[in-house]
Amino acid sequence: MKFRIPGASVSLCAAVVAIAAAMTGTAGAHADSAQGGKELVILGDSFSANGWEPFSDSKGCDRGDTSWPEQLSALMGLQGNTDQVWNQSCPGATIEGGDGYTLTVQAANAAKAGAFGPHTKLVTLQFGFNDHWGGADLSPWASSQSCFYDLAGGCGPDAVDEGRMIDPRKITGAEYAARIAKVVTYIRYYAPAAHIVIVGYPELFAADQHAICFDIAGLALLQPKGRTVVEYFNRMDKAQREAAAQTQVEFLDSRALTAGHGLCTPQQWVNGVFDPMINLGGLPFHPAPQGDAVIANALYERYAR
């Protein structure tokens, strides 16, 4: 039997029903979202959540008070208003796979909370570094961390050749687009007026760097062989742009917005490790409050005024 909804094709309706069933376990579980929806919906990983409890063993979804979603909520006059803001971002989250909240799980939780509807203004997606690409054994994030302190081996192209790091070329726009396509279709159907925005990652290292630098307690440490880590950011940026174009959503170029303010720069907008000069308790290698403020302001000015 075929069901028709006015203004929608049978194929689109079937796709949305199928996605709803996959996301929620039942095609009818989206009933709550048939209402107005929430103005702002945040789906993402630690670069959205940006919270950290360094001395806690729990694996919760820590969300920082100065993260860009919090600052954006304040700009929209919605801070603390859970009736209009739904933030599902979580450290370790992936588009698919892994042991964190996937994009599908986050979207399903948002749907159950009635987050998607005709009044939804903005839905953001910030994912990628925790995913495994092209069948790789490690994510780019895990692959980078394993070589940061290896001064002898380093994080250069030879690390890829020796199998110590994944090949940056495995990160592709086509695969990124394929992974987000169903959820994007779902959101677009239930929140037709919303801007759907892939939020890019901020600059940690300039695109042409070969050596990379980071700081611990304010002491700068240099990894002279860092090109592959930089290439992960270059390839992810390219993949997100291509995926946005292929799925017809927006892309926020956070890297351009934060250019010149990466790790070990004179005006650093990225947290070091327990760096008292930047942000003592900030999540390492993630945006400091200044970096998140730039992203929040750009999202507000372009999509949420």
* Rg of Cα set: 20 Å
Q: Which shape, going by the Cα principal axes? A: globular
Give the number of helices. 10
E-strand count:
7
What is the N-to-C succession of helices and strands?
Answer: HEHHEHEHHHEEEHEHH
Question: Which range does the strand content fall in?
Answer: 5-15%
Helix content: 25-40%
- Spans of at least 5 consecutive residues whose pLDDT stays below 50 are 1-15, 25-34
Return the structural class: alpha/beta
Q: What's the end-to-end separation, in Å?
A: 43 Å
Mean pLDDT: 88
Main sheet summary? 5 strands, parallel
- Strand order of the biggest β-sheet: 2-1-3-4-7
Q: How would you portray this structure in words?
A:
It is a single chain. Helix content is 35%, strand content 10%. With 305 residues, the protein is an alpha/beta fold. The strands form 2 sheets. A 5-stranded parallel beta sheet has the order 2-1-3-4-7, sandwiched between helices. The longest helix has 21 residues, at 227-247. The N and C termini lie far apart (43 Å).
